[in-house]
Please model this.
Amino acid sequence: MRAADACGPRRVGMSADLVRRSETPGGFLRLLLGMLIALTVAAVLGLGATYLSVSGQPPFGTLQVGAWQAWPRSGTATIDPYAQAVLIRSGALPVGSGDGVAFVTRRTDDVEPLNARCETVVRGITPAARYWTLTVYDEAGRLMNPPELRQGFTSQEIVRNAAGEFEIVVSPRARAGNWLPVARAGRYMLVLRLYDTPIGITTPSGPGTPMPAVIQRGCPA
Amino acid sequence: MIRWLLWLLFGIALGGVVHLVTVLALPRFAEQSAYARLVPVSPVNAMVQLPAPAADSTLLPLMDPAFAESVCRYDLGEGPLKFVVPVTQAYTSLSFYTREGVAYYAINDRAAGRRIIELDLMTADQRAELPENDEMTAADRLIVESPGETGLVLVRALAPEPGFMPMVRETLAKARCEASPPAQDKNG
Model:
């Protein structure tokens, strides 16, 4: 957008000289040129800003806990127009707020992108919820694994330690315990969905919300 | 020079308007919306079970594979709809979306508090036309107001372990959305 701003005046200056040299049709030409410039700037800025703001994640109302991000308002009728545009472009249906809330991450706590080559650990506890599921998707939101492999865990399938904490290992190679395979190469994302939970609706939720840590534990070269 | 700067400022302001208008208008024209994606697989005002999401499926992105899901693509133009959804063992929910993908209402089995979730979906106008002292409506039925005439209702049931999935799908297959037994009949 800045680039568009910067080339505006230069073009204007050149055109202004041109117009001044041609004496007779001056006013009309200048008006036409001015309008042309204004419309071009409007189109480039307006459409550019729209494209930038609706590609990727919803820009507003993000609830960030560690590496996890959620948009609780996206599951309500008071969703903002940007989030709505992002969702409708992706074709996904948001989790309704009476149903639950979805936390997404594409990175570890150390801001490393999640890479299917590496071994990544999701460890800790989740906020209170009747059920939760953790699922691995590719960057386009498709399931990562073929049907014969596990796509994710539900809270009922998880093995926990004595303290009630769990550890899920996301890795291309089989691991003991809660192993979540990643069968394809490349970046991926994890979605933790909490069902029947007060998070995002009745309780004020913020950095104090207990969410599992996402840690990269090894990455073969 | 001032003149050109003014044109530029005008362009920037107009750009802001273009931006707002396009963001607001986008949901109406999005061809890849969930609603548009579901049109080929879901008849109007009938409950159909969605295929299990798979790595190569492009029906809807970001579906939860632990759930069996059914969808009712509704059109209230002919009158209100009645939903009857049996509750599965673990967790069942109904989510209501406008055609533009706004999740305007959702309810789960615990909030419904019964073995079968029953509710009526209607527009604000249709609700206003309901006879006032219809005891059935007042006491027993949950009424959901749809902001528009068309939209989606997603019924989701959790299989807490993959082994439960066939049973959950079987129960979910009994979910119905159909024309309400018209309240107008009682009226006259």
Observations:
- Chain A is about 25% helix and 25% strand.
- The two ends of chain A are 39 Å apart (CA to CA).
